Hints:
Blueprint: H1 2-10, H2 13-21, H3 23-32, H4 38-50, E1 54-59, H5 67-87, E2 93-97, H6 109-126, E3 131-133, H7 141-154, E4 159-163, H8 169-176, E5 182-186, H9 201-217, E6 221-225, H10 229-241, E7 250-254, H11 259-267, E8 271-278, H12 282-292, H13 295-306
Parallel strand pairs: 1-2, 1-8, 2-3, 3-4, 4-5, 5-6, 6-7, 7-8
Helix pairs in contact: 1-12, 5-6, 6-7, 8-9, 9-10
Amino acid sequence: MLGPVILAASRSDRMRRLISAAPVTKQVVDRFIPGETVADIVPIIEDLTARGLELTMDVVGEDITTPEQAAAARDAYLALIDHLQRLELGEKVEMSVKLSMFGQALEGGHELALANVRPVVEAAAAIGTTVTLDAEDHTTLDSMFAIHEELRKDFPQTGCVIQAYLFRTEADARRLAESGSRVRLVKGAYKEPAEVAYQQKHEIDKAYVRILRTLMEGEGYPMIGSHDPRLIAIAQELAHKAGRKLDEYEFQMLYGIRGDEHLRLAAEGHRMRVYTAYGTDWYGYFMRRLAEKPANLRFFLRSMVSKG
């Protein structure tokens, strides 16, 4: 299994130095993580929004071990929001946050993460945008959903992510498909045990379609997180059958992957949001994505060749 090997490499200072120095690594990182600072990514934000696209911004960071690091993550998002306010692009750019970055895994982590994420959600609302809480491994989800429910009391536009490969997600989708909710559906990339998650691609795809149907037939706002052409076509069909207008759902894809498809969907009138990560801690982000699903490595390298 490659996953544990890659995860071990993510914690090795020696491997960090070796991998960081490899030219191919820099090529991949530059393509999928377009900058380290807010100043770096401002031109990206301006370019993509000028092309009719919307964004969700992720400040990368892994292995939060102290409350001070969690506070620094909060402050990084507040700095991003300050820049978005100056650009007057709040309505076009939302934020995605991982509660682990806000201290969720530390002692008293649930309360700490809620205390850190609340001012980010509040500041986002003040400039006309919102925050989506990313899903992580299954052991963190009850805490994430509880924080999501608490935030929605004051900021009902706060979104969350659900993962199709988890057995629990169909029930979560039924609960979340209510008026005013914003739910991003992804397949799921963490290495989860067979006791809690589907392991085969065809099972995950079938679950994705079932859950997406629930969201489309519900009263909330579905966000389709997928690069799969077949699932994108199915999403359009389900939206049509549910009588949804083009502004009543959206597609989301990663920056650097299928860029032509981003523009095609936007040109057809769909809301198309580009998930754009940036920050200095790209190594941990990059390696953990590979550890969660080593097939991502082949996907990234194919994307490098295709330039699509």
